[in-house]
Amino acid sequence: MLLVGCGRTPTPEEEPAASSSVAQADSEPTATIPVEPTPTSDEAAQTPAEASSKTLFYFDPTATEARFLVDEILLGQDKTVIGVTSLVTGFISVDLADPTTAQVGQIEIDARDFATDSRRRNTSISRYILQSVRDEYRYITFEPTAIEGLPEAVAVGGSYEFNIIGDLTIRDITRPETFTTTVTLVSDEALEGLAVTTVTRADYDLTIPSVPSRRRSQRGSSPG
Q1: What residue ranges do the domains of the chain occupy?
Q2: Where does 30-208 sit in CATH, by number?
Q3: Mean pLDDT of the chain
């Protein structure tokens, strides 16, 4: 599973210098998104009213998390392995007066930073499973292509569920995935959210090295 969080602070809208996407190995990605927003404005093409209509919410690096969950059997006992990193970048562009036009930028996760409860497992993940020790496989990305189910209106304190469809890239394999997403408008200046999906390791050719007394389930589970 994968988890991403964000919160925002306003600024004039510009394309983010770095955009990103999230993904995870055979488990359910989830996203908790506190973002730091920046109001958008294209002064050359928009009127002052139009320029202030959109806000860019950047993922807040102090409140954002991506994680994966994988179920395994270790020494005869069921165990859920959780990998976590806070090195996630992304942004959301939204006009609070017309949320149906909202857009989500590319989300990027630094897979090299994933940490579990075991240093040995961390090494196995980075060297053999995600192979994130290699520069070309360091980042997992999610490139949104469509959003389904956006609300026609939003209010502070309201929570809204919709689907984000896009292309998830893990190592050198890209596949379409859908994240079930819940976002809460905390205030005009802050969003919080969670996006979750389940992916199959085989789809991304992610092979887990055999370890005595350890077995893996083919799919992972997810937190909110």
Answers
A1: 30-208
A2: 2.40.128.110
A3: 79
